[in-house]
Specification:
Number of helices: 2
Structural class: mainly beta
Distance between the termini: 40 Å
Strand content: 35-45%
Oligomer: single chain
Length: 177
């Protein structure tokens, strides 16, 4: 696998090697041993979550705070999404900066979203299946979030506003200011 730095401190793009031939393609989506060698400071992943969404769905921006903070390894198995990571660590030199990347079942790229980051994605294809591994148990009372359209962040979700589908919870999230 290739590990590529992003402009955000500790946020990485993971590119597994893809083997193609006349039968189709094959890739090792995750190899715990290779991953641990490449990123030895990373806690092991304990849970794999998966969501299925339709075009226009926007999920986020969410994080777990304190001892419940989570690193996520996000990949899109089917379809296309715009994945968004926001550095929400006040002590970080990239605090409140965001990074976006298209993840798809075609490009096999994955995004490592570190602890202390907000995370979200928008669905750009008819449907998308998103799989993410996490390294800490989810605790609802420790969840924090920001509105997807926070003007300080100014994220382009690559969707027309009229097409965005949000959960009631995400619509009620607050702004930074």
């Amino acid at each position: 696998m290739n590990i590529i730095d992003t402009p955000l401190l500790d946020c990485k793009i993971i590119e597994p090697v893809v083997f193609k031939d006349a039968r189709g393609k094959f890739c090792i989506a995750f190899d715990r041993i290779a991953f641990a060698k490449a990123l030895p400071q990373q806690e092991p992943f304990i849970t794999i979550n998966e969501s299925t969404s339709t075009y226009g769905v926007l999920r986020g921006l969410h994080a777990q705070k304190g001892a419940a903070a989570q690193t996520k390894l996000v990949r899109c198995i089917q379809g296309h999404i715009l994945d968004v990571a926001v550095d929400f660590r006040p002590e970080s030199p990239t605090y409140l900066k965001h990074f976006t990347i298209e993840l798809s079942g075609d490009n096999h790229k994955q995004l490592l979203v570190p602890r202390g980051f907000l995370h979200g994605f928008s669905v750009l294809s008819k449907t998308a299946i998103v799989n993410y591994q996490i390294d800490n148990a989810y605790q609802p009372e420790m969840e924090v979030g920001l509105r997807y359209d926070d003007p300080t962040l100014n994220i382009d979700w690559q969707l027309p506003k009229k097409d965005m589908i949000l959960s009631e919870r995400d619509e009620k999230l607050g702004f930074l200011k």
